[in-house]
Amino acid sequence: MSQREWIEKDFYKELGVSSSASQDEIKKAYRKLARDLHPDANPGDTQAEERFKAVSEAHAVLSDPAKRKEYDETRKLFAGGYPRTGGGFTPGPGGGFSSEFNLGDIFGGAQAGDGGLGDLLGGLFNRGGTRTAGGRPRRGADVETETTLGFREAAQGVTVPLRMTSPSPCTTCHGSGAKPGTSPRVCPICNGAGVISRNQGAFGFSEPCDECRGSGSIIDDPCVDCTGSGIQNRTRTITVRIPPGVGDGQRIRLAGQGEAGLRGAPSGDLFVTVHVNQDKVFGRNGDDLTLVLPVSYAELVLGTTVSVPTLEGRVGVKVPPGTADGRILRVRGRGVPKRGGGAGDLLVTVKVAVPQKLDEAATESLQNYAQAEQASGFDPRAGWAGA
């Protein structure tokens, strides 16, 4: 993307949010648009595909606090007009850039790391895959995506395919930008640096090389499939291994699986945010699994052994005689697998299930028991509320 295109694009408008929107509002807006516009949901709809690319581009900038800050500051800097080499400001048609505007003429002389506008604009525009002053290509942008797993899949680990549409290395030229059988050559004007220096009196200025457009290399015979960029937008399927024990909202980083860099530069990274569905039986507390075990009153009083589920089959849990309702029984090593090996525990909470209806025989037996209990001196409310 050129400098002019970057500043003139309204990423907030693409996502339908205000410039003061929070990161959560930006994320929610992107998720909704990405879901509605995804190529898989709109097969053959080129307009939806273009909107999907624009929305993804906007999210890549606004979801990164550092990129968003640079974008906001740069747009604010040029909101009222655009500097030209002769001094003063020259707004273009409709408030856009004039054809004479060149950021390199104004800020090219700034030294790297001086903290001024040279750093601001250099860091902003070099993310697109161009070369730095030293001729080293910039890596591609990072990409974010999401996936939703079942509770047990997340606890035990699973391999999932992710279908993505994003800039990727051209499969014809393998990212070089040159036609197969040929190679880019070093720019003879800047000697591969991508910038040239000019002296004007007591001042020195650096600006992108016009011959190679700042890339440091020249392609005499460009690849016909990517027109020399080394990048193609294509849909691909990536197999992602989700490790055991991943939690809801956790991000997984896949190095080198993001957007491709220009002309063979390293690719960015892919960040996958995992969402985990709730389970009907299990809950989770850190590395421990939790569940509620329904039991009868007689089982609590007399004791019993009950078969309960785990992530790897069933185990028997012993309920000691006289167990109180709500007591938590611990089964060691039957919880969520830990990163360093081993697993958490299974925490079983016993809860009395009260019958809603009894037949005549059961009712008579329970009444006899209640009388015997009272005769033995047992008082369930002894010492309760001052009694």
From TrEMBL:
Protein's GO biological process: DNA replication; protein refolding; response to heat
Main localization (coarse): cytoplasm
Claim: Zinc-finger is one of the keywords in the record: yes
Cellular component GO terms, alphabetical: cytoplasm
Molecular function terms from GO: ATP binding; heat shock protein binding; unfolded protein binding; zinc ion binding
Binding residues annotated for Zn(2+) 2, in chain numbering: 187, 190, 209, 212
Ranges of residues in domain J: 10-75
Compartmental location: Cytoplasm
Co-factor requirement: Zn(2+)
Matches recorded under Pfam families: DnaJ (PF00226), DnaJ_C (PF01556), DnaJ_CXXCXGXG (PF00684)
Residues bound to Zn(2+) 1: 170, 173, 223, 226
Protein family membership: Belongs to the DnaJ family.
Assembly description: Homodimer.
Protein name: Chaperone protein DnaJ
Organism: Nocardia panacis
